Amino acid sequence: MPQQLREDSQAASNYNTFTAEAPPALGGSSSTEETGDALPVGGGGGATGLVTMFKGFLPRILEGAIRILSNQSYLSTERTYRPSLHLRSILLRPVLLSYRDPETNLYFQGRDDWMVVVLWFIILFWGRGAAVCWVWVPLAKRLNVSPTSESETIEWARAAHSLLCAFVSFNVSIYLLQTSSCRNFRTKSFWTGYPHTPIKGIEKLFYLMQIAFWIQRTSSFLTEEGIRNLQFVRVQQITYLIAVFLLVSSYATNWTQPGISLLCSMGVVDIFLPLLEVIGWSGLVRSTPAAYVSVILSAPLWLTTRVFISGKIAWSVIFESKRNIEYGWRPEEGFFFSVKTHIWFATLILALQLIWTLELLLAICRSSVCQKDAFTRTE
Q1: Residue 375 in contact with residue 276, Cβ under 8 Å?
Q2: Who's near 303: CB < 8 A, 6+ residues apart?
Q3: I want to staple 314 with a disulfide (CB 3.0 to 4.6 A). Which of 45, 185, 294, 349 is the partner?
Q4: Band of residue 372 on the pLDDT scale cut at 50, 70, 90
Q5: What is the rounded distance in angstroms from the CA atom of residue 337 to the CA atom of residue 340?
């Protein structure tokens, strides 16, 4: 029994030496001597030796990577009102999230976050073009979608890509909403405990990606040639610009809770409309009566999400906000709720409500008047 206790004590000592004591340098020789006894030793060669060597080097590689990243950050209040980890290298700022609170592992909003937005805009913009050309168009040809019209094949590919992006975005936004205090669109929670900062890493990354995504949608809509209704294009341009202004403003002023709720209310229609386009451009629904019926069936979904639910959010922004929090402008606390801020958000969200109603009416009119206009791009 004493012999067993001595062996267990020796094993624990070896384990602590391996996990707790960091080597002085990435390639230092002393780390090999200190951690060698704690690693499993293979009795034979071949595959067993390779596995043993891999198990020995993997923790050291991970430890070295963590040390490199740790050396690239420093604790400061230079760009945040509370101490957070700032990245030293400008090359890492677009790739990694900045301003992590080391105590809570949550993230503040900060000035360098625009670099993440720029990187994801480039990825989404060029990724869309690559996916349409190399994935969706070949798939459309394989499925024999509109074999007599190349333009309709491209429109089908664009709609399919928009459908996939909207589906992913909606599911992530629902997850963030349902795991927060605002689940099930509890609008009063928007203002309880304001300002809501710092936030979770996934929430920060998602919000920055959404800003990049809506800027990319605006750019793609203006640069891509396609079958369009000019009147609808003007309305869509205004919609996208308002959405971008709302996302950027809400992120900068720590209004992310209403922003995620609004993204959820938009997500259902953002899925359904590209789905109608995919069906329409594939030729399954091409007659005017069928297109009209499709748009009419989508009207209740539109009214539920983009009129009633988003209207509830607008009501909360306009009226509930000033009932639950007082006006103030305290950047040192992350508190941005002045009269001008309130008017700014109220104006944008009301304009968005009016434009969504106008879009629904235009969709019904187009589908009842002209077959080709029934499936004009709606992304």
Answers
A1: yes
A2: 360
A3: 349
A4: very low
A5: 8
Task: Report which DSSP code applies to 92.
Answer: T
SS3 at position 307: helix
Answering whether pTM is above 0.70, one says yes
Residue with tokens 């670099």: 115
For the cut 80, the answer to whether the pLDDT of residue 188 exceeds it is yes
Count CA within 13 A, CB hemisphere, residue 73: 21
Q: What is the distance between the alpha carbons of residues 138 and 164, in angstroms, rounded to a whole number?
A: 16
Residues 6+ apart with CB under 8 A from 113: 98, 99, 204, 208, 251
- Angle at alpha carbon of residue 338, lines to 198 and 211, rounded to 5°: 50
- What pLDDT, on the 0 to 100 scale, is given for residue 133? 93
Round to whole Å and give the CA distance between 86 and 96.
11
The CA-based dihedral angle spanning residues 322, 323, 325, 326, taken in that order and rounded to the nearest 10 degrees: 60
Judging by beta carbons within 10 Å of its beta carbon (0-12, 13-18, 19+), is residue 50 exposed, middle or buried?
exposed
Helix (H/G/I), strand (E/B), else coil: 56: helix
pLDDT per residue as tens digits for the range 40-99: 444 444 555 555 655 566 667 666 665 666 567 888 888 888 889 888 888 888 988 999
For 176, the enclosing helix (H) or strand (E) is helix 150-178
Angstrom distance (rounded) from CA 18 to CA 185:
48
Q: Is residue 291 a contact partner of residue 238, using CB atoms and an 8 Å limit? A: no
- Per-residue pLDDT at 6: 45
Cβ neighbors of 153 (< 8 A, separation 6 or more) are: 137, 140, 141, 145, 146, 281
If DSSP states are collapsed to H, E and C, what string results for 18-43?
HHHCCCCCCCCCHHHHHHCCCCCCCC
Q: How far apart are CA 210 and CA 268, in angstroms?
A: 16
Instruction: Kindly give the interhelix angle for 201-223 and 256-281, rounded to the nearest 10 degrees.
Output: 40
What is the gyration radius of the CA atoms in the chain, in angstroms? 27
Q: Which two tokens stand for residue 309?
A: 């639910």
Is cis: bond before 198, omega within 30 of 0? yes
Judge contact between 153 and 277, C-beta under 8 A. Answer: no
Strand partners, 84: 76
Answer for the pair 228, 377: CB distance below 8 angstroms, yes or no.
yes
